[in-house]
Give the backbone structure.
Amino acid sequence: MLRVPPGERVDLAAIHPAAIPAGPRDKAAGVAAMARMAEPLASLQERLYAASTAGDRRRLLLVLQGMDTSGKGGTVKHVIGLFNPAGCRIQAFKAPTPEELNHPFLWRIVKALPRPGEIGIFDRSHYEDVLIARVRKLVPRSQLGRRYDQINRFERSLADQGVTIVKVFLHISYEEQRERLLARLDNPDKHWKFNPGDITERAAWPAYQRAYELALERCSTGPAPWYVVPADRKWYRNWAVGKLLLEHLEEMAPAYPPADFDVQECRERLMAT
């Protein structure tokens, strides 16, 4: 229900950021459902990692995009926190460095990809190069058009290499963002998370919404679909992303590799020592 069908027009204004389109109906039920997901998620992650030791090249990449305060960091804390951190590769993408600007825009993305058996998490991603670049007019529109095609080809190649891609847009409302920014200002312990530039960026809210709509429309494909997760309710956001990861990992069906040694012979040797 959260998936963006390939080729269809996207109207974010028609999707309520506080909606509960599926799943638990209230916070208590959502928190309980998340708790029940913890064990199967951890088990599937362990099997994925174990399978890689026997040559399985598969891995999973979670892409998190959204406006400031939409909950990318909170999702990492509450959902990815259910996994063994040893099997996760988390990368937060900031403004490109001078070195990164001297390379094609996908260069820094390739360097951060998860390895076989890992779960990769992108806090922002290559989509910044068709989002902020469009809103701030950092590149010509003709170049932006080519980037959508480059992204689609790139993601298709990843899928061909055994990468399961889960792209999530955390859909927050203009009003909820204001409340979350105010909460940061009102709490000295949260001042480090506040950036005065976030207030300036709010003035470009309509432009960002349109930029996201275009990215969702142009880059929701069969190998790498987009999912729009209503994010005004933090508990629902966590449940929805957790459920998406669970469904994709179950579909991957990773399995523990069989022993490549004589189990009984090793048991007998161990008992004899």
User: Anything to note?
Assistant: The chain has a mean pLDDT of 96. The two ends are 58 Å apart (CA to CA).
